[in-house]
Write a structure and sequence with these properties.
The chain has ten helices and ten strands. By secondary structure, the chain is of the alpha+beta class. It folds into two domains: 155 residues, Ribosomal Protein S5, domain 2; 105 residues, 2-Layer Sandwich (Alpha-Beta Plaits), CATH 3.30.70.890. A hairpin with a 6-residue loop joins β8 and β9. It starts with a strand and ends in a 5-residue tail after the last helix.
């Protein structure tokens, strides 16, 4: 068995986001539908006997020890103190874009090291560890497109029909903490049933606030509205529109102004990480 794994760490879209309340501890109650994408970062893991956890790759922006990838590996128990890993990150998911890059990287690391270090931790145990790293980590550990409630920890897998998305990165960073702490954020949206979403009765409660605060996001939404219903993912900054086929999405991308960047991705119901790690370890 190889001690090296190379995995696609998938991005996600929030197809809608309702803020239904705020708890006493400050966390927001929400409803959302996480759509996994067949596009994301690439992580390579090489386990060794150094006892060290190291992270390499492009400019990470922060010290390696503060990165969620390293924190995820450190959060796992190890069978021996000699178990170590060298991790290489190929970053494509923009930071502060609402695509779940950091959370996906953390979850991919938990799943990869559970496999390589032969820890035999179950899905629930890994999700519990992941929840301490970030509210969106459990959905990436579970590895399925899912309806989420609570603070994002109550997950119901959903099978969605194949859809293609054009995702636009406006070139600005939106702070989740700043949006959730803003007094203008709507926090009392009434909960909906899943059927209401499929009937079109949903929105992103953060969208108007983010476009008011960030002209780049407003411009991206206005441009993308020419091709379909443009939506903000998460707290932003990225925006997206759905298409029935790859050709239509790619055609729209070809007309993207030079001031913006974007990509086309297919919505998937199962994470490529789960597909790669399926089957018993031998």
């Amino acid at each position: 068995m190889s001690d090296t794994l190379t995995l696609l760490s998938p991005a996600k879209l929030n197809l809608f986001l309702h803020i239904t309340g705020q708890r006493g501890d400050g966390y927001h109650e929400l409803q959302t539908l996480f759509q996994l994408l067949d596009w994301g970062d690439r992580l390579q893991f090489e386990s060794d006997n150094s006892g060290e956890i190291s992270l390499h790759g492009a400019d990470l922006g922060i010290p390696a020890e503060q990165n969620l990838i390293v924190k995820a590996a450190q959060a796992l128990p190890r069978n021996t103190s000699k178990q170590g890993v060298s991790i290489h990150l190929e970053k494509r998911i923009p930071e502060g874009g609402g695509l779940g890059g950091g959370s996906s990287n953390a979850a991919t690391t938990l799943l990869a090291m559970n496999y390589l270090w032969n820890l035999r931790l179950g899905d629930k145990a890994l999700q519990k560890i992941g929840a301490k790293l970030g509210a969106d980590v459990p959905v990436f550990v579970a590895g399925h497109t899912a309806w989420a409630e609570g603070i994002g920890e109550f997950l119901t897998p959903v099978e969605l029909p194949e859809t293609w998305y054009l995702v636009i990165a406006p070139g600005c960073h939106v702070s989740t903490a700043e949006i959730f702490s803003n007094e203008q954020l709507t926090r009392n949206t009434s909960p909906i049933k899943m059927a209401a979403f499929f009937e079109g009765n949903s929105r992103n409660d953060c969208q108007q606030l983010v476009r008011n605060l960030h002209k780049e996001v407003d411009n991206a939404l206005n441009w993308l509205d020419n091709f379909g219903t443009a939506k903000l993912t998460g707290t932003g900054a990225c925006v997206f529109a759905s298409f029935d086929d790859k050709q239509s999405a790619t055609s729209a991308l070809s007309q993207l102004p030079e001031s913006m960047s974007g990509f086309v991705a297919r919505g998937i119901n199962t994470s490529p990480v789960l597909n790669a790690l399926v089957g018993p370890k031998v």
